[in-house]
Structure to design on (68 residues):
């Protein structure tokens, strides 16, 4: 099983707390249905575990803005 994880920081280097992270099956078209989501912790970390090996797209929603 695969793990997908990362950290999210602001421009000043402080962690982004409470951002919503969604993951999607990677396709050439814009993904429409999230396979799961989590929220960044106090260190800005997010993790998805137990994933099948493959490619995934990640979208981060924070402060009313979506980032890919």
């Amino acid at each position: 099983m695969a793990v997908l994880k990362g950290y999210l920081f602001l421009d000043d280097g402080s962690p982004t707390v409470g951002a919503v992270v969604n993951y999607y099956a990677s396709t050439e078209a814009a993904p429409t249905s999230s396979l799961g989501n989590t929220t960044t912790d106090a260190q800005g970390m997010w993790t998805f575990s137990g994933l099948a090996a493959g490619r995934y797209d990640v979208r981060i929603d924070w402060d009313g803005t979506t980032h890919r």
